[in-house]
Structures are given as structure tokens and as C-alpha cells.
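Q: Make up one entry.
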Amino acid sequence: MNAAFALRTLSRPQPYRNPILPFLVPSLARLTPPKAQNASITTSSLPPSTEPQPESLQNPSSAKRRRPLTKEQREFLDSALRVNQAGELAATLIYTAQTPPLARAHPSLLPLMQHMYAQEAGHFSTFNALLAKHRIRPTVLTPVWTAAASFLGWSTALLGREAAMACTEAVETEIGGHYNGQVRVLLAWVKEMEENGEEVGEEVRELVETLKRIRDEELEHLDTAVDGGAKAAEGYELLTGVIRGGCRGAIWLSERV
């Protein structure tokens, strides 16, 4: 596969638009604000190495009583999965918009951009499947995030390689902390279940492992961006501050609508 063909393939919209259509379009006809207040999603800057490692995640026991998730826990998962799906859609769009100008100016970056895009597309597919499985609607702000992410990717790429890497660093810093917070909430649930002599359900176990894997891949992107010269971007502090603030605002809004 030559570079031009690979670049055209990566730039096509189909890989990230098709998965959302089966459940996004029907939802537009019945969009109503949620009656209950969504659970607040926690972030954490603590490193993954400090996370507890509950025994029940490695050695499940069917002999224990299984307790269904509470209403508050379900609301938390609804908000968490909706935000995660929106964030991964945005990530695919950022890389899709960044790749053409970056690859023209720096052809050696094409394999790296393809690698990060492929991981983000995989994350997006994972959360699409989870939303469909649990009948959770995507955020109604999907069209807004689609436009914003595309513009962010395109504009930072035009500013140069360092600015594009600074964009990735800023986004992944917020997303990494966001996933860290979710993992720690789920691990707290697991600890409570263990203390009560209850079995940790397969749904929770699988979700913890999925979030950990995706979190680690996002942090890999962060490290790659820093190594790629992110901090050398002109106006680095202002640029990353604005992007991180935008990410926090998008997370807050997507939790609720």
C-alpha cells in the first residue's frame, strides 16, 4: 500500500460514521432531557500502578450471591459510556483531519497517525457496541462535537507538527484522567461487593478490563505526543489550556445531554 492510497483511506469518513447510524438516527425522534440528574463522573491523576487489584476480578466465584447494580450505578454507567463514545468519535475525527496536512509536510508521520487512528477507531467501535448493548443513546451534541473535533484537528495540523502533538497531549491528558476516574469508581464497587460477600458480575469485570486497556492506549498516545515535540509548540501553554478546558466542558455537557 503506498502512502497516497493509505492517506486517502484514512481520510474517508465511513470508518467512523457508519457504526453510529443504527442507534443515533432513531434516537433523534425522541430526544428528551433526562428526568434524573446524571451521576458526576470522577477524574483521577493518580498513576495506574496505584490502583487496587481486587482478587475477584481475577478469580470470580459463582458460589457468591450476585447483587444487581443500583439505580445510581446504572446512571453512572449511562453517563460514562455516553461520554466515552463521544470522546472516541472526536478522537477519530481529530486524527482524520490532522493526517492529510501533517503527512504532506512530514511524510514520515503517516504510519504513526495511522496507528493512533486505528486504535481510536477500535475504541469507538467498542463504545458503540456497549451503547447498543445497554440501550444508551449517544449525546444529542454529537453534531457539535463532530464539527468541533474536525476543526480542532485541521487547525492544529495547519499550525505545524508541534501544535498537532500539543493537541494530542492536551486531549489525552484529560481523557487519561477521565478514564482513570471511571476505573477507580468501578474498583470501589468491586471492593464493596467483596466486603459484602457478593459476586462481581461479568459485566463489571469486563468493563474494568476494557477501560483499563483503552486508558493505557490513550496514555501511550500522550507519551508519543510529548516525545514528538508537543511542548515545543508556539503558545504551548495557551493552546493546551484552551484545548483541555474545551475537553472538560465537552465531558460535562455530554454527561447530561
In short: The longest helix spans residues 71-105. Residues 7 and 100 are 7 Å apart (CA to CA). The radius of gyration is 19 Å.
